[in-house]
TrEMBL record:
It holds the Pfam family PALP. GO terms for biological process: cysteine biosynthetic process from serine. It comes from the Bacteria. This is Cysteine synthase A. PANTHER family: CYSTATHIONINE BETA-SYNTHASE (PTHR10314). Pathway: Amino-acid biosynthesis.
C-alpha cells in the first residue's frame, strides 16, 4: 500500500517548449510542484525528519519545531502527520494570511511572532530554536544549516536528474532559499560529470549574486518572489562554487511565466520563473544544442493573489498577464 510520504520525490522532468525554442537548447524542468505538499520542500522535510529519527534526535511523541513561513512548514506538517509527530511552526506576523491558512490546513500548529531582523534574538528562526530547546523531546529541524537537507538532494533530486537525462546534461541552474537543492544537486552532478556547468539564478534583493561575482554579500533591489534570495552563506551553501551567476529581475521572469501558462498550460511560482529565466541565460551563453535542467519548485496557485493578480502587479509597475489585461467579458 502506498503512503503519502512515498509520493515524495521521483518527479517527472518536463520539456519546456517555449524556452527551448527561444534558445535552441533543451530546457528541462523538474516538476517539484507534483510532490504531495506541492513543493520541492517536501524532500527537505522528509530528509530532516528521517535523519533526526535515525540519529535518535526525534523519538515517538517528540514535536518537530521549525521557523518558516513557507513550503518547508507545509512539508514538515505533512511528514510529521504521516509519521506521528506534532509540528509547531513559528512565523512572523507580517506573512500573508494565506500562508498561515495553508500551514493550518496542512496540520501545523502555528505561533506568530513580531518581525525582527535576523541579527536580533527575536527573529522567528531563533525563537523556533529556543522553543525546541525548551520543549522536552522536541527536535529543531534547522533547514538552513542541517546537512541532511543538502545530502538528501544529492541522493535523490540530483541522481534522478542524472538518470532522467541519461547523463546528457550540460548545465544545471537554480535559485537558493536554504541552498540545499542547488548545492546537493551540484554535488551529485559534478561527481558524475565534472564538466557540467552549475549556475545560480538569484532574484533581485538576494545577496548571492554579488557574493559569487565579487566575493561580497551585498543585496541589491527587491523582488516579489518568495522562498528564495538569501542574505548569508548558509550551511547548505558553505563550500559551494558555481561557474555562472545571474541576477534575475521580476520584469524578466514574469513574461516567461505568463507564456508558460498561456502556451503550455504550466502555472508556476516565482522561484520557478527565476530558475527558468536563469536557464535561458545559461542556454544563450553555452550556445544551441545543449541540455539545461532547472527546478519547477512550486505551482502558481500558491501565488494567485500576487504573481497572477493584475492589481498587485500594476501597483508595482510590473507586467500583467496578457489574458488578464485583455480579459473583456464575452458577449452572448
Ligand atoms: N522555491 C520555493 C518556492 C521555496 O519555498 C524554496 C525554499 N525556501 C526554494 C525555491 C529554494 O529551495 P532551497 O531551500 O533548496 O534553496
Amino acid at each position: 500500500m502506498t503512503r503519502i510520504i512515498d509520493l515524495i520525490g521521483n518527479t517527472p522532468l518536463l520539456r519546456l517548449d517555449g524556452p527551448s525554442q527561444a534558445t535552441g537548447c533543451e530546457i528541462l524542468g523538474k516538476a517539484e510542484f507534483l510532490n504531495p505538499g506541492g513543493s520541492v520542500k517536501d524532500r527537505t522535510a522528509l530528509a530532516l525528519v528521517r535523519d533526526a529519527q535515525e540519529r535518535g534526535l526525534l523519538k515517538p511523541g517528540g514535536t518537530i519545531v521549525e521557523g518558516t513561513a513557507g513550503n518547508t512548514g507545509i512539508g514538515l506538517a505533512l511528514v510529521g502527520g504521516a509519521l506521528g509527530f506534532p509540528v509547531t511552526i513559528v512565523m512572523p506576523r507580517t506573512q500573508s494570511p494565506a500562508k498561515k491558512d495553508a500551514l493550518l490546513a496542512a496540520g501545523a500548529r502555528v505561533i506568530e511572532v513580531d518581525p525582527a531582523p535576523y541579527t536580533s534574538e527575536h527573529h522567528f528562526i531563533h525563537i523556533s530554536r529556543r522553543l525546541a530547546e525548551q520543549t522536552p523531546g522536541a527536535f529543531w529541524a534547522n533547514q538552513f544549516d542541517n546537512p541532511a537537507n543538502k545530502a538528501f538532494h544529492a541522493a535523490t533530486t540530483g541522481v534522478e536528474i542524472w538518470e532522467q537525462t541519461g547523463g546528457r546534461i550540460d548545465g544545471f541552474v537554480a535559485s537558493a532559499g536554504t541552498g540545499g537543492s542547488l548545492a546537493g544537486i551540484a554535488q551529485a552532478l559534478r561527481a558524475r560529470k565534472p564538466a557540467v556547468t552549475i549556475a545560480l539564478a538569484d532574484p533581485a534583493g538576494g545577496a548571492l549574486y554579488s557574493y559569487y561575482t565579487t566575493g561580497e554579500l551585498k543585496p541589491e533591489g527587491s523582488s516579489i518572489t518568495e522562498g528564495i534570495g538569501v542574505g548569508r552563506i548558509t550551511g547548505q551553501l558553505d563550500g559551494l562554487s558555481v561557474e555562472r551567476a545571474y541576477r534575475i529581475e521580476d520584469g524578466e521572469f514574469l513574461p516567461i511565466l505568463f507564456d508558460l501558462v498561456e502556451r503550455e498550460g504550466l502555472s508556476l511560482g516565482g522561484s520557478a520563473g527565476v530558475n527558468i529565466a536563469g536557464a535561458m541565460r545559461l542556454a544563450r551563453e553555452l550556445g544551441p544544442g545543449k541540455t539545461i535542467v532547472t527546478l519547477l519548485c512550486d505551482a502558481g496557485s500558491r501565488y494567485a493573489n500576487r504573481l497572477y493578480n493584475a492589481d498587485y502587479l500594476r501597483a508595482r509597475n510590473l507586467p500583467v498577464p496578457p489574458w488578464v489585461e485583455s480579459g473583456a467579458p464575452l458577449s452572448a
